[in-house]
């Protein structure tokens, strides 16, 4: 099936208009709560997963009814929503794709994100008017590949993470397809995320959405004739983390990417917390808006870097964008964060708010409220009452309490607390519980 000339022309016009106006900030939405937060904190578009054929099987994901509601909510705000269909499929999987696409076809999703050429072909056959975006899993590294995919009906390519800024510029000069680049989030020790470790060690395929993250595990050396004797490669006795990648952070290079002609800046993290989505989205929103408002005088605000350290993360790297020799963190696989996410505002009634707890905190603690447009305020937790009006001294996870918060407050604002306060420790496990806990 050839691509209609008018569709290619439309792609070129959309790219040129976007380049002259505004780069897209594309944000993960693992469930409905996270989608609402992503839109509220500044996303131009969100990407979500359905119940089939995505690469985040353990994310919340959306059934058809939830997806319909998510689409309506996103479009009401004048924003876009893309559905991931980016798993690589086996013969037995391919049989179910047609039925799923038929069920999806009536929904007004703005595009599908695909990796597998077979899935792409089924989309073109069953839902030919749907916009198609190519996942980073397809490892696109040059303009000729972009032109090839464009001839197959792809309108946007998420470029391979191995590219540097000069190579991205060359691809832009050599093609007029939409370009998307990851700017923030977790990375894999694999080629553009196509990893075989999980399948080899656990039988769970990363390329089918069930990664067990074995690149984060603690490894040691075993000599063939000494079974059971484990020799640490690092002398600190904790093992080695030679496959443990840092987290990507390209905040400093937002102007470089925009000037290179990138159409969409993408944040990783459909399995991350609601707080992660809010905190990271508002920083990149602020950076993009400041640059577009006054490119000649743009400067990266040191506060933004400080704010990103308040989110659970591994040590940051720029990876290849400029090349970073420390892209792999060999010391440990611990998450770092300076703050805990402790609550979300559910209702506002006059000068009082109904807060839903996420982690334990107490009256007298010093905490921060954060909202969109970099709005934030620090205050001391005042006396609180439960929903029956009884005094509460300690707010437990999932508890709902009324309190007074100074300044402007809105539904969906989040609360956090610095971890250095007495009785609280910095995250030290290889699996950060806040990253795993459902929101």
TrEMBL record:
Gene Ontology MF terms in the entry: peptidase activity
Keywords assigned: Hydrolase, Protease
Gene3D superfamilies reported for this sequence: Translation factors
Cited Pfam families: Peptidase_U32 (PF01136), Peptidase_U32_C (PF16325)
Annotated region (Disordered), positions in chain: 420-439
A Gene Ontology BP annotation from the UniProt entry: proteolysis
Domain Peptidase family U32 C-terminal: 337-416
Annotated signal peptide: none
Family matches, as InterPro entries: Peptidase_U32, Peptidase_U32_C, RNA/ubiquinone_mod_enzymes
Domain of life: Bacteria
PANTHER family: PEPTIDASE U32 FAMILY, TRNA HYDROXYLATION PROTEIN P
Family recorded in the similarity comment: Belongs to the peptidase U32 family.
Protein known as: Peptidase U32
Originating species: Desulfuromonas acetoxidans (strain DSM 684 / 11070)
